[in-house]
Amino acid sequence: MQLKLVIKKLEASSMFKKFKEKHPDFYLVHAFMMVEKGLSEWQIGYYSKKKDKIVVFDVGKEIQQNPESDVFKKGGSVKKVELDKVKMSFDDALELADKHIKKKYSAESVTKKIFILQKVDNLMWNVTFVTQAFNLINLKIDAATGKMFHDERTSILKLGKQ
């Protein structure tokens, strides 16, 4: 299911409407999808600047609300994702990332694909591939233009040494 339809389904649910009634200051900040042996369900995050907390909804056949939790960020607040500015769909981002990996990292065997739609400096698909060789390949794709602006491969084994 397309991301915009997933969010529409979530925001139309009675669970979400009750949540927004009680918490009108929460706004959309991310959409997360992990692809491993097929598609998993979307996780959609909403953030409150006032509380500095995030609430994540799992959206699959059923919708589940997770409890408020702390946010992983470096100072400031989390930027709002404006869906109307997202021109590159999840499917397009997946296709572009897969083609790039096959071309540039053809020797790597990917075991997991992690996609996060978020706004840091700009609205982007933050894509991470986990490989059998214990490498992480991180790509950042502008969600408005579809242009890749970051490509980095690092070893998982080196992460603990940093």
Overall description:
This protein has 162 residues and is of the alpha+beta class. It folds into two domains: 3-81, no CATH class; 84-159, Nuclear Transport Factor 2, Chain: A, CATH 3.10.450. It is built from four helices and eight strands; from the N terminus they run H-H-E-E-E-E-H-E-E-E-E-H. Strands 4-3-2-1-5-6-7-8 form an eight-stranded antiparallel beta sheet. The protein is globular. The termini are far apart. The mean pLDDT is 93.
Question: Could you give a quick summary of the protein structure above?
Answer:
This protein is an alpha+beta fold and 162 residues long. It is built from four helices and eight strands, in the order H-H-E-E-E-E-H-E-E-E-E-H.
Largest sheet: 8 strands, antiparallel
Structural class: alpha+beta
Please state how the strands of the largest beta sheet are arranged side by side.
Answer: 4-3-2-1-5-6-7-8
Helix fraction, binned, reads 10-25%
Question: Distance between termini?
Answer: 38 Å
Radius of gyration: 16 Å
Low-confidence stretches: none
